[in-house]
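Good morning C.,

I know you're traveling, so I'll keep this short. The sequence:
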Amino acid sequence: NELENFPLGTIMHCQAVMSSCNYDSILALVCKEPGQGKPDLHLFQCDDIKANLIQADIEGAMMDQKGGKVKRRPEALRMILKSDGVIPPPPAAPAPEPPATLTQVDVRSRVAAWSAWAAEQQDYDKQHQYLDQNEPLDMLATRVDRDVQILNHILDHIEFFVTKLQKAAEAFNELSKRKKSKKNRKKGPGEGVLTLRAKPPTV
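The tokens, ready to paste straight into the viewer:
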């Protein structure tokens, strides 16, 4: 039964990850639909047919779709038929034991690696889009300079807001200490100013 469908034109990258954790045959697909901002990452555990064979099949189909002179997919399909989905016999030396669980650090590092790769692909697509539009270099430089100025302006506003927020927190802490240390309810010198400063800043 077909559960999901990924057209070849949407597949940006595929990678087999073998024997890296308890899941010993993982196929990773990076896909991006037309008009989609960031690509999606899909992970599959391949049991009947190993991930490296499926990767060869997908890459062969992608190369054939691009019009390569030598058809690669038939050879990949022959490899799958010969393998019959069976794992090859183990080597003479015993393989090291895989870790019992995939740690949070491993997950974060892998996600970060895929995210970096996807960001590079997105930047690459943008560069080619600029080139395809035949935009003059001086206009491109002007646009980049304008975007940088806008970004710096936004960062200045964020920095100013964070500074005001820190000052308000400091004033609130000082005011709380003074209230705890005083037995009477009369305001001491400077408490009115602290009360005003302790108010959170408005956007």
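Safe travels,
E.
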